[in-house]
Amino acid sequence: MQSTAIPVTTSSSSKRPLLIGAIVALVGAFGYLAYGGVEDNLVYFLTPSELVAKGGKVVGRPVRLGGQVVPGSVEWNAETLNLKFKVTDGSQTVPVYSSGAPPQMFRAGIGVVVEGKLGANGTFDSKSLMVKHSNEYKAPKPGEGQHPARLDKSLIRS
Amino acid sequence: MTRILGLVSVWVALAISVYGLVALIGGLAKQRTAWVASGLQAVYVNFALLSVSAAAMIYALVTHDFSVGYVAQVGSRSTPTLYTIISLWGALEGSILFWGWVLAMYSAIVVYTNRRRPGGLVPWSAVALLTVGLFFYILLVGPANPWALISPTPPDGPGPNPLLQNHILMAVHPPLLYLGYVGMTVPFAFAVGALLSGEIAKDDWIRLTRRWTLSAWAFLSLAIIAGMWWSYEVLGWGGYWAWDPVENASFMPWLTSTAFLHSVMVQERRGMLKLWNVNLIVGTFLLTILGTFLTRSGIISSVHAFTTGTIGYFFLGFIAFCLVASLILVAGNSAGLRSEGQLDAMASRETVFLFNNLLLTGFTLVVILGTLFPLVAEAIKGAKVTVGAPFFNKMSIPICVALLFLMGVGPSLPWKAATDAQVRKAFLLPSIVAAIVAVLTLVFGPKDPYTVLAFAFASYAATCNLREYGVGIAARQKAHGESAPVALGRLVAANQRRYGGYLAHLGIIMTAAAITASSSGKVEREATLKPGQTMQVTDDLSVRLKTLWGKEEPRRQVIGADVELLKGGSVNGLIDPRMNFYRTQEQPVPTPAVRSRPQGDIYMNLMAFTPDGQSATIKVILEPFVPWIWFGGLIVALGAVVSAWPTARTSRQAARVSAPRTVRAPSGPVPEFS
Q1: Pairing of strands A62-69, A111-118
Q2: Which of A104, A22, A36, A137 is nearest to B606 (CA)?
Q3: Do A157 and B551 touch (CB under 8 A)?
Q4: Tens digits of per-residue pLDDT, A18-76?
């Protein structure tokens, strides 16, 4: 142990508890925050059936809902950017409300994942909307060369 | 032919690695210099072999040799040559080949630059490097073989993932990432070498390790920034960081290596934290392997994808092997890892480093928890969950504010113990600046408490680090009568490590402040416009859709919107957000248009359009200060370069070391390093 003339230096026996205490407090705060934080911020992946089954328990909690867009349920107002549609997994159907333009590939029958919260009125309020796509890239089969987003000839500038 | 050449090269590299390991371990155990020298040659041969294999793969990609499995998977005749070449790292097998190649290159550089160094450190480090290499060669001939034969040869392939051929940053970000990521294997190898050769108690290996960690860290820092930039420019959501597992995979080893770069100074200066430093090095390496595992095994999307492929088991096995081997080595060397000094006072630089390390490793644990929790939850409860970004944000903001504070305190406090006067002096001016900034932010800026705190502590830290330059320049001016620029140049040249470090701090502070500012002052507007229609964004900025157009290209169809920026009613520029439809993928790839100015970006995305060209939905995001994030990243890297650049003094040291030459057995007498 070094003893110096510097006034703030005290012996290590009196400093060590202070240091250890600070470290323990820091680690404890971390652990407490992290544990509670994870629990509060889990986002569940649910199907419409699972969402309906959980009902009130997930109201107001962040959820990812995956399913197919019900044909004929899509209402999009381009002026107000309001988008309404229904998502189904075959047995249950959940109405979804979203604001903002739908992704270009969005259409009836396609698989989507919406992230948001279930409202008390049973409508799912979507914050983000993703069209589900596989990560596998396949060469187009014969006859598949036409892209679904085929454009009017007038739009093509060569 | 190319296929056979590429595959045989990897097989031979595998065999050479086994030979090298036998020769090195046998030679070191039996003190046969010739064996050790021969074993070290294996490292060079492997670099040559992996270069052949990687070159063969690039050749196969460029010549569209679709009989090669990997080319059939990612190649396409319509892909531009640049993107064809860089698809080497665009998918699993190619990226593992690239990993192996970069590691072989680093291994060769390590052995070559230390070829005259006596003692067992380098040969034992080569044992670790060859072992890690061996693991990747086994992957390449096993579960990640890019050279599988495809028969019959398909006429064309699907091309790389469209997201990876949409922006030039894909040619920049992955190589930088691998140079940083794989570079962390070298410090690990030195630590293993020091443990095995018995040099762990000496200082020399830790200096060598610090320089290698610093350069890998610089690459990793640049790679993370380039990845953020890529995400911002390509994904079209107007953000740059989402706490995605892929991002976390590169961030975790960055945090632990940052911790090491600080705590290593405590070891060099005071002989403390030796055990801790070895653990940080090992942990950083394990996190790079864990990150490769997370991003390359498919485990992230689902636990079930993992059970179908075997590559995940290889990684888990290797991580377990490295972990157990390192623990045994560290436990067996506890005598050499004992601390020489001890903390003298709370107000001292080493205490600041201690808390900096606690925060950085705590941060790492938080990120690990958030990243792995979904895997654990799915494995145990079967529930599919993700940990949302709010968790990471909530945890990281206080940690980052505390780190900013320490970044300022550290340089202000002396080693060992500060006097009361020193403490007062260290805190007074920066605290005043921080208080002024806090008040200004409250009055003119956002009232959000986190933003105020972040700005206050960022200005605190910036003041402390700038003051270090100011004090140094003033002292030189007074002592030598130099002009300020000359004094600055000589000050930095005389003490590169220190002032390079402060420069890196300033870069981090700039990035942290810009991230805070950009997330608190964002403005978003979205509207569907017909050509000629205008959308008001702010009081003095509006945008007008001019035309919507389409273009046919060989591999894709491009849809673009020409949008005029109107400032105070007059046209101030034109930008064209686009949407690319690749023929091999249903989902379009957005290409946002970004107009960068010092005060921030105008970020525009084409969200939707009607196929007849009659209207388009445009989203405009005003992103304040975003360019400063990238600029800060460059300054960080510049600081690392200044810090790591060989000085006259280190070259002299190296020359002294190189005097007694040839490799020696470790148990023999080892010349003292002075």
Answers
A1: antiparallel
A2: A104
A3: yes
A4: 777 877 887 787 777 777 777 778 888 888 998 888 878 888 888 888 888 998 888 88
Number of H helices, E strands in chain B: 21, 11
Across the interface, do B386 and A43 touch by the CB < 8 Å criterion? yes
Q: Do A81 and B559 touch (CB under 8 A)?
A: no
Over residues B288-347, the pLDDT tens digits come to: 999 998 887 766 654 444 445 678 889 999 999 999 999 999 999 888 888 888 877 878
Write out pLDDT tens, residues B587-629.
788 899 999 999 999 999 998 888 788 889 999 999 999 999 9
Contact B366 A30 (CB under 8 A): yes
Neighbours of A89 (CB within 10 A): 18
Question: CA of A136 to nearest chain B CA: how many angstroms apart?
Answer: 8
- What DSSP string runs through B570-618? EEEEEE--EEEEETT-SS-EEE-EEEEETTEEEEEEEEEE-TTSS-EEE
Tell me, yes or no, if B362 comes closer than 8 A to chain A by beta carbon: yes
SS3 assignment, position B646: coil
- For position B146, what pLDDT does the model report? 95
Interface check for B655 against chain A (CB to CB < 8 A): the answer is no
- Which DSSP string corresponds to B179-231? HHHHHTHHHHHHHHHHHHHT-TTSSHHHHHHHHHHHHHHHHHHHHHHHHHHHH
Q: Is the pLDDT reported for residue B657 higher than 90?
A: no
pLDDT of residue B578: 93
CA angle, corner B175, sides to B58 and B650, nearest 5? 125
Across the interface, whether the CB atoms of A155 and B550 are under 8 A apart is answered yes
pLDDT at A25: 81
- Tell whether B158 lies on the interface with A, counting CB pairs under 8 A: yes
Token pair 């070159």 in the structure block, residue? B55
Q: Using a CB-CB distance cutoff of 8 angstroms, which residues of chain A are in contact with residue B345?
A: 6, 8-10, 15
pLDDT, average across residues B505-525:
93
* Smallest Cα distance from B343 to chain A, Å: 7
User: CB distance A38–B370 less than 8 Å?
Assistant: yes
Residue B529, φ and ψ in degrees, nearest 5: -120, 145
